[in-house]
Amino acid sequence: MGAAVLVPATSANLGPGFDSFGLALDLHNRFEAELADEWSVEVAGEGADALPRGADNVVAASMAAAFAEAGHPELKAAIGCTNLIPTGSGLGSSSAAIVGGLLLGEALAGADFGDARRLELAAELEGHPDNVAAALFGGFTVCWRAEGRARYARFEPARGLAAVVVPALTELRTSEARALLPDAVSHEDASFNVAHAGLLAASIAAGRPELFGDALADRLHEPYRAQAVGDLREVAAVLREAGAAGVALSGAGPTVIGIVAGDTDRAAHEIARRVAERAAGGIRDLGTRRSPAALAIDRWGARLL
Q: Structurally, how many domains does the chain consist of?
């Protein structure tokens, strides 16, 4: 008897929410597994030519962590992955793999870790909690650490929001993007981000799209990561001209995300689709990007099937 799970893509940071904000998106990887004598991994879709096929695969390693947490470190599994989330793109592919592996391991071991422990395990494996929280719980999440542990708060995004994402043709490792950041920032820049992070959280929860243009501004990571995402300004300009209410680097990049709004979720997704169509020509002319894609917000998070 096996188990299967669907895990959403996520966009972390969202401009000023460095290492704390996350938004779940309606693009999913499906993972399934059953107990076996040895580890094996089959991969279809994104990363099929590059991802490991054994115990060193992130899904397998996360399942092993779940088995150990459940008191059954001897267990192994045969895993199948159907990946729609681009790898190394800033859309949470590694977080999806971690969350998927943990939930599969928990299910196959007959355990129940609870939300708080699931987040802590996922954050330990990923190194930071922002993407994994959004992948686990869906919607809009804010993460922080207290007493050495990862904490989160989930907020239901206002109805009528959607996203347009523009992945790059090349990957950018999170470790490489993080290495570009300075050890310290000015008090002025820190104050700037505090104000804009508060504005962004409020505007997402309240549905105030007219604020997104200002709210998504950042001084803590995007100015430094722009040197590794050389077309960031050009892509952002194309999305704004096409109708995005606000634009930011998704996670560590190189994907760029635009937020759009409508009267309802369905209307917002239709607007996002039109924004993606209008932006397609300008993006294609850059020669560095995949085609823009319109995505709804995932309001449910990872779920066993």
A: 2
Q: Per-residue pLDDT for the chain (305 aa), expressed as one digit of tens each?
A: 799 999 999 999 999 999 999 999 999 999 999 999 999 999 999 999 999 999 999 999 999 999 999 999 999 999 999 999 999 999 999 999 999 999 999 999 999 999 999 999 999 999 999 999 999 999 999 999 999 899 999 999 999 999 999 999 999 888 899 999 999 999 999 999 999 999 999 999 999 999 999 999 999 999 999 999 999 999 999 999 999 999 999 999 999 999 999 999 999 999 999 999 999 999 999 999 999 999 999 999 999 99
Whether 303 is covered by a domain: the verdict is no
Determine the structural domain holding residue 202 and report its residue range: 161-296
Same domain, 179 and 233: yes
Residue 205 near residue 158, CB atoms below 8 Å: yes
Give the side-chain half-sphere CA count within 13 A for 34: 2
CA 303 to chain centre: 16
End residue of a domain, out of 136, 155, 174 = 155
Q: Please count the other Cβ atoms lying within 10 Å of the Cβ belonging to residue 260.
A: 28
Instruction: Tokens for 244, please give them.
Output: 């995005």
Q: Are strands 293-296 and 161-166 parallel, antiparallel or unpaired?
A: antiparallel
Six token digits for residue 185: 């920032």
Backbone angles phi, psi at 138, to 5 degrees: 70, 180
Domain of residue 213, CATH code: 3.30.70.890
Last residue within a domain, chosen from 155, 190, 220 = 155
Do 192 and 291 sit in the same domain of this protein?
yes
Chain Cα centroid distance, residue 152: 15
The amino acid sitting at 73 is P
Amino acid, res. 160: G
Give the tokens for residue 135: 């992948």
| 21 and 116 within one domain | yes
CATH number at residue 86: 3.30.230.10
